[in-house]
Amino acid sequence: MGRVMVLGSLNVDLVTSVERHPRPGETLLGEGLSRLAGGKGANQAVAAAAAGAAVAMVGCVGDDEGGTAYRRRLADHGIDVTGLREVSGSPTGTALIAVSDDGENTIIVVPGANAGLDEREVDAVDSLGPGDVLLLQLEVPMRVLCAAARRAAGRGARVVLNMAPYAAVPADVVALADPVVANEHEAAALAESGLLPGSLLVTYGVNGTAWNGRTWSAQVVPRHQVIDTTGAGDAFCGALAAALAGGASEDEAMEAALAAGAAAVRHQGAQPDPVL
After folding, report:
1. In which element (H, E) is residue 240 found?
2. Residue 47 three-state SS
């Protein structure tokens, strides 16, 4: 069984609830304020660990209380945090999140220490080999992500690239990912760019998924059980990477990922028990 290494972001999520999202220039009152664990990289690492994979987290936190708390939280989830570096003088990444009554969210991310990833994080990839999975997202510096993807592929590891939040990625990195994971909007932007992934997995929310032309139905979650959609995509990616590292078939990996995504919308925050 292979390992999952997640190279990505860690954020402290500050979350409030609103009846609806504000229009441009409008001010609304939020209800409550929670400090929760987030960041696409850490979300996916926790999801992969919950799915039973051996997981290593590679990234940066600030030299603040939030960074210390996050390191402890990941270790408590059984995640290897030796690749988690503290950036002196920088705050841990922060996300400002508003969740509406219908479960939809808007997010503003302040990168903080996530912008400090460099060659030291790329070097962590040298421990990977055949059977292992490197899971990437786009909340860290592009040069670091690309260098890590190329090095991991060169060492025989499988690279899974989540195209979120969407950004232009060099053609060779898109081509080596197996798969590129994108929602329908990210997939449309990717198509407009003219880049052609060798393997493309598109998520359509309640309308299911498609992977290289094959389709799967979503696991239905009753509307009254939908609490927060914030972490559904990350839970999907983490569970997918865990299944692939465990040698699962395409069908098995997709079913595990869909189940994780469906479970994620039933709790507040991007991670289970997310209070930080």
Report:
1. helix 232-245
2. helix
Q: How far apart are CA 12 and CA 252, in angstroms?
A: 32
In single-letter form, the type of residue at position 212 comes to N
- Which pair of structure tokens corresponds to residue 57? 């987290």
Q: Which residues are catalytic?
A: 234
**Locate tokens 């960074």: which residue?**
67
Tell me if 245 sits within 8 A of 44, measured CB to CB: no
C-beta atoms surrounding 192 within 10 Å: 8
* 261, amino acid identity: G
C-alpha distance from residue 4 to each of 7, 47, 112, 157 (Å): 10, 11, 25, 10
Parallel, antiparallel, or unpaired: how do β-strands 3-7 and 54-62 relate? Answer: parallel
Residue-wise pLDDT for 41-99, tens only, equals 999 999 999 999 999 999 999 999 999 999 999 999 999 999 999 999 999 999 898 98
What pTM did the predictor assign? 0.91
